[in-house]
Specification:
The complex is a heterodimer. By secondary structure, chain A is mostly helical. In chain A, 76% of the residues lie in helices and 0% in strands. Classes of the chains: A mainly alpha, B mainly alpha.
């Protein structure tokens, strides 16, 4: 029996809970404390937690470093393209009022999309930093 | 509801006393494993009693459901963290402090 059997079982149980909490923080961010950055860090922590128990090689099979680069730039792209869309609709850069009929709905949609972009980028960057530290001396 | 208030504060006070006991244990016990034992045993129940007390304060609402979820999370994560610490220390080669007067036979004495 492996000595870290308990940790393996607990990681399998806690990983979806942590990831779900990250999405709760992300999509509840406009009503409660939270938002894109915190949600991204929590989602990154879920994967780091997995990597601490199951090893870096297994985690890199789940999320390859190339995918992380694409995800990190996708988040930025979502952020910037939201701003450009509001400019195309006739407002200023990141002027959320333009995104829907009423300004309040537009604000909700705008902040949600922005936070989604921030969350994707932050979680990808957190995992990239962890990969960079954890794979030291391997090459 | 005076009874609810009394019960709630009884839970919270007991939880606080357990937390203080764990802190004193960390301060007073001689080596790593006994310190870990002191805080690992008390902190789960300390957090649980706090959460029960707070849930009694809020009553049946969304807040108490969230407190229940926090309790479930702590119930699994806190003993696991203690286990991981002790396991890492044992793997790292840290020897437990044994009773010198007994010739280091502390572990054998408990088995009979």
């Amino acid at each position: 029996m492996k000595h870290n059997l308990i940790l393996r079982v607990i990681v399998k149980f806690l990983f979806p809970v942590i990831a779900l909490f990250a999405f709760y923080v992300l999509f509840h961010g406009d009503y409660a404390p939270g938002g894109g950055f915190q949600a991204g860090v929590i989602l990154g922590v879920a994967f780091i937690f997995y990597a601490l128990i199951f090893g870096l090689v297994t985690t890199e099979q789940v999320i390859p470093p190339q995918l992380l680069r694409i995800l990190a730039s996708t988040g930025i792209l979502i952020y910037i393209s939201t701003g450009i869309v509001t400019m195309l609709l006739g407002g200023n850069f990141l002027d959320y009022d333009m995104l829907a009929e009423s300004p309040v709905t537009g604000q909700h949609i705008g902040i949600m999309v922005i936070e989604l972009g921030v969350g994707i980028t932050v979680s990808a960057i957190m995992l990239m930093i962890f990969y960079a530290f954890a794979s030291r001396g391997r090459s | 509801m005076i009874l609810l208030e009394i019960t709630s504060w009884l839970f919270i006070t007991t939880g606080a006393l357990l937390g203080i006991a764990g802190g004193i244990g960390i301060h007073r016990f001689p080596d790593f494993y006994s310190r870990l034992h002191a805080v690992g045993v008390t902190d789960t129940l300390c957090a649980a009693l706090f959460l029960v007390g707070l849930a009694l304060q809020t009553g049946f609402s969304l807040a108490s459901l969230k407190l229940l979820l926090i309790f479930i999370f702590l119930f699994f994560s806190s003993p696991t963290a203690t286990h991981a610490l002790a396991d890492a220390a044992l793997m790292g080669g840290l020897k437990p402090l044994l009773d010198e007067d007994n010739g280091g036979n502390d572990l054998d004495r408990h088995s009979d």
